[in-house]
């Protein structure tokens, strides 16, 4: 795995893209994702720290891992304004700098579309979660409509290039289940901007429980 990441164009664009998305509904999605989260939280690929303001008083600590230096600098600023303690760390979802079974919540928002090795990242999420913990996810998905999926596949190479490695074609919900998580709550929706669908519209917000630790 590469030890550094640099996506200067995406890092410059993402705060604006995110502000636009938040003005059109993703602010509410982030609230929904994090409502009722408690205890020690690990956020993977925290970007600009857009989730930080949604952590409520039940959260005692957030460890936010972000590999991209420019985005991480923005996350550090957002951490200062958060109402709960947030530690922003460099690192990768595939190698979390967090002890085994020490987190109550792992948060993945708009990130499993981009992470290079999703099974490794989900295995890490399972490793760091307590047995009673939860994976909270908010992701865009490949469409289950064949025509729409064909369009996503067609656009994907350009989308990846402009979107810092983001993929339109991932079946992320299935990847979570394949990693052994039990999906307990899930809401599918099309994220529409001004009533219109875009290539990343098919979306999901959910909560999954980690796989049970195997006894030797
Ligand atoms: C679309 S942004 C989403 C940021 C943030 N989670 C949000 O909800 O706004 C995707 C993020 O994933 C990060 N990322 C990419 N590969 C990663 C990896 N292997 N581990 C952790 N983060 C990664 C990128 O640097 C970027 O910040």
UniProtKB/TrEMBL annotation:
Pfam families: Methyltransf_11. One of its GO terms (molecular function) is S-adenosylmethionine-dependent methyltransferase activity. GO terms for biological process: methylation. The keyword DNA-binding does not apply. CDD domains: AdoMet_MTases (cd02440). Residues 42-135 form the Methyltransferase type domain. It comes from the Bacteria. Keywords: Methyltransferase, Transferase. PANTHER family: METHYLTRANSFERASE LIKE 7A, METHYLTRANSFERASE LIKE 7B. This is SAM-dependent methyltransferase. It comes from Streptomyces gilvosporeus.
